[in-house]
Design goal:
This protein has helices at about 1-35, 85, and strands at about 40-50, 60-65, 70-75, 100-110, 110-120, 130-135, 140-150, 155-165, 165-180, 200-215. The protein has about 230 residues and is α+β, with helices and mostly antiparallel strands. Strand 8 (about 155-165) and strand 9 (about 165-180) form a beta hairpin. The protein is globular. The relative contact order is 0.19.
Length: about 230
């Protein structure tokens, strides 16, 4: 009984500090949310370059459509293999209401002040992801996103920004992949495997241009032929 009582006392003492740490972490996300509050939608042209060890694929042109808070569509004339995780910009992705946030460190990133946060979904689902986000606090920009999924996928996105129609949006995203080998089974146009490794590694570079912002994209654009969004 004494041990249980001691445990409650320790929890009571630590709880205010934990709450304060959560609030401190939240304040790094709020300026980003405010910065992009006026971004309702955008379209952009993209070129995707693959450099993955187990297959070869030519560069792929895509058209990206985004509408806040979470609608996204990609069009391409070729078989589509587009990295949705980290491959496009969604400023509404990290809503503080949906995550438990842990402050990891404060450091300098390319000459700017930065922090690193760990975000864990409050309502875990199958294949739940854990995110580690690097935020440039001088410019209120997400510079890097690390994604770890419980099935073994690991993806890191490094984002470079330009200014388009008054908003800072990515012109280059580099994804570094470390995936279980089953992740690569899919598009038939890729070369046949010689031997499957235990892990698949490589990079995907996406370069964006020709942004058009706040043109009033309609919800119907994001409905596929089967009627699903």
């Amino acid at each position: 009984m004494k041990k249980i009582w001691l445990g409650f006392c320790v929890l009571f003492l630590l709880w205010p500090h934990w709450t304060q740490a959560q609030e401190d972490a939240f304040r790094y996300l709020e300026p980003i949310e405010k910065k992009y509050a006026g971004l309702k939608d955008y379209t952009a042209d993209g070129v995707v370059h693959f450099d993955i060890e187990t297959f070869k694929a030519p560069d792929m042109g895509v058209k990206l459509y985004y509408k806040a808070p979470d609608k996204m569509k990609v069009e391409s004339k070729r078989i589509l293999f587009f990295p949705r995780e980290g491959g496009f910009f969604n400023p509404s992705l990290f809503k503080k209401e949906g995550f438990e946030i842990k402050f990891l460190e404060r450091f300098t990133y390319e000459g700017a002040r930065a922090v690193k946060l760990q975000l864990t979904p409050q309502k875990p689902k199958r294949n739940t992801k854990e995110w580690v986000v690097t935020i440039d606090t001088d410019h209120n920009l997400i510079r890097e996103i690390g994604i770890t999924q419980y099935d073994g996928r690991e993806i890191k996105a490094v984002i470079h920004y330009g200014t388009f129609d008054g908003f800072e949006l990515p012109f280059h995203i580099r994804l570094t992949l470390d995936l279980p080998s089953f992740e690569t089974e899919g598009p038939k146009e890729f070369d046949q495997w010689v031997q499957k490794p235990k892990r698949v590694t490589g990079t995907i570079d996406i370069r964006y241009s020709n942004y058009k912002v706040n043109r009033g994209l309609r919800d119907e654009l994001f409905v596929n032929p089967e009627g699903e969004k």
